[in-house]
Specification:
The chain is globular. It has helices spanning 21-32, 52-57, 94-108, 135-152, 175-182, 217-235, 259-275, 315-326; strands spanning 2-5, 37-45, 79-87, 112-117, 159-165, 195-200, 244-249, 282-287. Helix 3 runs parallel beside helix 4, helix 6 (217-235) packs across helix 7 and helix 7 (259-275) packs parallel to helix 8 (315-326). An 8-stranded parallel barrel has the order 1-2-3-4-5-6-7-8, surrounded by 4 helices. The longest helix is centred in the last third of the chain and has 19 residues, at 217-235. The chain is of the alpha/beta class. The chain has one domain (2-326): Glycosidases (TIM Barrel, Alpha-Beta Barrel). Helices cover 32% and strands 16% of the residues. It has 8 helices and 8 strands. InterPro entries: GH.
């Protein structure tokens, strides 16, 4: 298993303070312990119809100029960049999207190890790609386009994938999404997919059963992993040899939860993921996130960090660090 994290300290429109590069360097180095480590970042395509204040609210004004850290940091110390290209225009714009992908590859392709084309296109909530007009075309045309663009630039080692939120019952149903992928010939879409990412927040947004009972965090995690591999990916003609990456996983610490509850939940989720990594071909895990977006927020998304918004480590930091340090190195 290869491990990683999102370092930026933003969750949607929540972000208390600008990132502190020095703190990020120290904390990520401490987590990685000298091992290869994946760093997740996001860039967004908005199209022409999106008001500027929406772009600003997501902190996305300068994404093609720079990411959270200086360019060279992503290529040092065994780090690998997992870059998400998110599609959230107000009106469908596939030509503009494909041009945007070219711009992203021109700007960051040389730093990138994993390129994720769209963010949770099966998840129709505001500011997530599943709510954007034309998202199915953005995904299914974007992946082959990105593969060709990378190959043309000699960047054939970059792995391309997409992410989904699972399982379907958490979303109110995503049958239409998987039915569309099922209708596509293998050669036109699934053949171009190097990995499929999973966004996994089983206890973040609704109550779960007590620890050890059916429907607890660990069992929901296991169910999500099996639902994706055994049901959804089969429908989309994506074979068992295509790895799953858990690209976002987190649990909050804010009220009514506690930092210790966050620690326990993270331990349970990681235990379930690691227990199924070989049988389900899960090769990568990335935690969301390093820092709280807003430690005083009542929103679950505000307190997903391993450290507070002022970079004080929570108990969950040591839990994740110990897992990263003690799990045998990935052979993938």
């Amino acid at each position: 298993m290869k491990f990683g994290i999102y370092p930026g300290g933003r969750a949607g429109v929540l972000c208390s303070y600008p990132p502190d590069p020095a703190a990020i360097r120290d904390l990520v180095d401490d987590l990685a312990g000298g091992r290869p480590f994946v760093v997740r970042e996001y860039v967004h395509f908005f199209g022409d119809a999106t008001p500027p204040d929406v772009v600003t609210s997501l902190g996305a004004e300068h994404e093609l100029a720079h990411l959270t850290m200086p360019d060279e940091w992503y290529a040092e110390g065994g780090r690998e960049l997992d870059l998400v290209a998110s599609y959230i225009p107000r009106a469908a714009d596939i030509p503009g999207w494909l041009t945007f992908l070219d711009s992203v590859i021109d700007r960051y392709g040389h730093l990138t190890r994993y390129l994720q084309v769209t963010l949770e296109p099966n998840f129709p909530i505001p500011l997530i790609d599943g709510s954007a007009p034309g998202v199915l075309d953005a995904l299914t045309l974007g992946i082959p386009h990105a593969r060709a663009a990378l190959d043309e630039r000699g960047l054939r080692d970059v792995r391309i994938g997409f992410s989904v939120a699972e399982p379907a019952e958490w979303l109110g149903g995503d049958d239409a999404f998987w039915s569309y992928l099922a209708s596509l010939p293998y050669e036109s879409f699934a053949a171009h997919v190097d990995y499929v990412g999973l966004g996994l927040y089983p206890d973040a947004f609704s109550p779960v059963a007590p620890r050890g009972a059916p429907g607890d965090t660990a069992s929901l995690t296991t169910h999500a992993l099996h639902h994706l591999r055994d049901h959804s990916l089969r429908r989309a003609h994506i074979p068992a040899g295509t790895p799953i990456h858990v690209v976002e996983n987190g649990t909050p610490s804010g009220a009514p939860r506690t930092e210790q509850a966050q620690c326990d939940s993270l331990s349970d989720m990681l235990g379930a993921i690691l227990a199924h990594q070989r049988s389900l071909n899960i090769t990568q895990y990335e935690l969301f996130s390093l820092r709280d977006a807003a430690s005083d927020s009542t929103e679950p998304t505000g307190t997903l960090g391993l450290v507070t918004d002022t970079y004080r480590p929570k108990p969950a930091f040591a839990v994740y660090r110990d897992v990263v340090r003690n799990e045998p190195p990935s052979v993938h």
